[in-house]
Amino acid sequence: MSHVVKLSIYEQVLLGPYSADLLDCLFMKPSPQTTLLEFFPTDTFGRDEELVAQSRGIQYLAWRNDRIFASDNLPVIMPPTGTQEARVDVAAVIKTIRDTLARK
User: Fold this and answer.
1) Whole-model pTM?
2) Which residues, other chains included, contact 93 with Cβ-Cβ below 8 Å and sequence gap of 6+?
3) pLDDT tens-place string over residues 14-46
4) C-alpha to C-alpha distances, 60 to 3, 37, 81, 82, nearest whole angstrom
5) In whole angstroms, what is the distance from residue 21 CA to residue 16 CA?
6) pLDDT score, position 6
7) Longest dimension (CA), the chain
8) I need a surface site. Which of 40, 68, 76, 81 has the fewest CB within 10 A?
């Protein structure tokens, strides 16, 4: 078993910039705390990872600038155009992770 798969089994929160790397959520064990956080640049959004997370019973949250979107209020799909920065409010992300892990 690869190291990524081994780590993903024990993770409760997987986060990172939008990319196919977040498909590792396939190997996460679903629980009330299991969450995928995906960060998007301004005017960019895709649903690929959200659909995978949802199919596994994993909560999905998308961040764009200072806004957070859950599966029930996702923005319109806007494919990326080249390489773009995704700005992240670190304090807000930490609070969201703490709130997620405190869920029962």
Assistant:
1) 0.83
2) 15, 37, 63
3) 888 888 888 888 888 899 999 999 999 988 998
4) 23, 6, 23, 24
5) 8
6) 46
7) 40
8) 76
Q: Cα(81)–Cα(77) distance, rounded to whole angstroms?
A: 13
User: CA neighbours within 13 Å on the CB side: how many for 14?
Assistant: 28
Query: b/e for 32-63, b at 16 or more Cβ within 10 A?
Result: ebbbbbbbbbeebbbbebbebbeebebbbbbb
Closest CA relative to residue 15, chosen from 60, 55, 73: 60
Torsion angle of C-alpha atoms 52, 8, 90, 72, degrees rounded to 10: 20
Residues β-bridged to residue 68:
63
